[in-house]
Write a structure and sequence with these properties.
By secondary structure, the protein is mainly alpha-helical. The protein has ten helices and twelve strands. It has two domains: 157 residues, Herpes Virus-1; 128 residues, no CATH class. The strands form five sheets. It has a three-stranded antiparallel β-sheet. Strands 9-8-10 form a three-stranded antiparallel β-sheet. The radius of gyration is 32 Å and the shape is elongated. The chain starts with a helix and ends in a 28-residue tail after the last strand.
């Protein structure tokens, strides 16, 4: 069901894995409960740098601390819908007849309706009075349990009101302050600012969001291709390491007692190189996955805001989303990481002769390199009296790998 999927995708905090409580948005567009991000940054002071728990992008704490991070009213509204859809909501009591649930009153009337404008649960009698009273007759209470789809309920949500002027609706967008404002705000604190109707601005922002989302989404496929390339490199390298290990063991078996100790030394060196290379691959993989996560999170969030958000939701989020899109498009860390990782080949060529020196007889591992990248070499000798030969590995990789040439 579309609603269930929507609620699962955007209503769960990545830190506590519970439904959001007071959701706050970071500049990178990742979202967390206020209490969770407060715990995450508990050692930080206002104006300090804090890294996002998901993508590690740093942001500066507002002057009033974590509580100054912008609220996500769009998600908060859906949480309200979630509450109305829950079974528990059908057993809540009227907030007009029973304003104090701890009063000890034995008679409590169950709520049957919900008024979005007043944000109160009402019993049947209070709901009828609600429709008669002059101040609330324009309100449209919804029967609790009448709808099972949060997206339908969201349509009943009234226009967002100003935090400063509670009775005024946010009807304008201030380009200078990059915020949605009411008419009173426009007259008092935005008098000389360029403002426009929020619905008209939202249409432009919605189009820009669509362009940005498409541009960022293009990088998702590139990240996936790079991850495939990383996986291929890992598999090829492991295969070559395994073949080299087999070759070393076969050669060591020919020399038995004389070179047993040296055989173990070679395998240990090979294992060390493998471990080092696996770490390099894992680091590269994690960097690209972070890029992929950032782009996918951005696209998912923008799509939801663009398709489901009100004009106010879109106008409020547009500026930060635009800035984040520019950052994601300019970020080439993933490509640079993959380029730095390069490609490594490893092989083993055995000796046809036996001498008393185990290292000279069996051979040794050493790195070879070009100006482009490292090459893993296994050097073995044909020396019986004085002549020696070395066998190397393949060409062309991207960065230099450190490896001791000792035995």
């Amino acid at each position: 069901m579309a609603t269930a999927k929507l609620l699962d995708d955007i209503m769960q905090c990545p830190i506590c894995t519970e439904m959001y409580t007071d959701p706050r948005v970071l500049p990178c567009v990742h979202m967390y409960c206020l209490k969770c991000i407060m715990e995450w940054s508990k050692d930080k002071q206002p104006e300090d740098k804090v890294a996002c728990p998901l993508c590690r992008k740093e942001f500066t704490l507002p002057s009033n601390g974590v509580e100054g991070l912008p609220k996500n009213f769009y998600v908060a509204s859906f949480l309200e819908m979630k509450e109305l859809l829950s079974v528990e909501s059908k057993t809540n009591f009227c907030e007009v007849c029973n304003p104090d649930e701890e009063s000890g009153s034995e008679v409590q009337i169950v709520a049957s309706d919900y008024c979005f404008e007043c944000q109160m649960k009402l019993c049947r009698k209070c709901a009828e009075q609600h429709k008669v009273i002059k101040a609330t007759r324009s309100h449209k209470p919804v029967s609790i349990g009448q709808y099972t789809d949060a997206e339908i309920l969201y349509q009943f949500k009234p226009p967002t009101r100003c935090d400063k002027h509670k009775d005024d609706i946010l009807k304008l967008y201030c380009f200078e302050c990059k915020s949605a404002i009411c008419m009173m705000c426009s007259a008092i604190s935005h008098r000389n600012h360029e403002c426009n109707d929020i619905d008209a601005v939202a249409d432009d922002f919605r189009k820009q969001m669509a362009y940005d989302a498409n541009d960022v989404a293009a990088g998702i496929d590139k990240c996936r291709e790079m991850l495939d390339s990383i996986e291929k490199e890992k598999n090829e390298f492991i295969e070559q390491v395994e073949k080299t290990g087999v070759a070393i063991i076969e050669k060591a078996e020919q020399l038995k007692q004389m070179i047993d100790a040296h055989k173990e030394k070679l395998l240990n060196k090979l294992s060390s190189f493998k471990e080092k290379r696996m770490k390099e691959i894992q680091i590269a993989r994690e960097e690209i996955e972070r890029q992929l996560l950032s782009r996918e999170s951005y696209k998912k969030y923008v799509d939801e805001v663009r398709q489901k958000g009100t004009a106010c939701d879109i106008a409020t989020a547009a500026s930060s989303l635009r800035e984040r899109a520019d950052e994601l498009q300019k970020n080439d860390d993933a490509e640079r990481t993959l380029a730095d990782l390069g490609h490594v080949d490893v092989t083993f060529t055995s000796s046809d002769f036996v001498v008393d020196d185990a290292q000279k007889t069996l051979g040794y591992l050493t790195p070879g390199s070009t100006t482009a990248h490292p090459i893993l070499r296994f050097l073995t000798t044909r020396r019986y009296a004085s002549a020696a030969y070395a066998v190397m590995v393949c060409p062309s990789v991207r960065h230099k790998s450190e490896f001791n040439q000792d035995g």
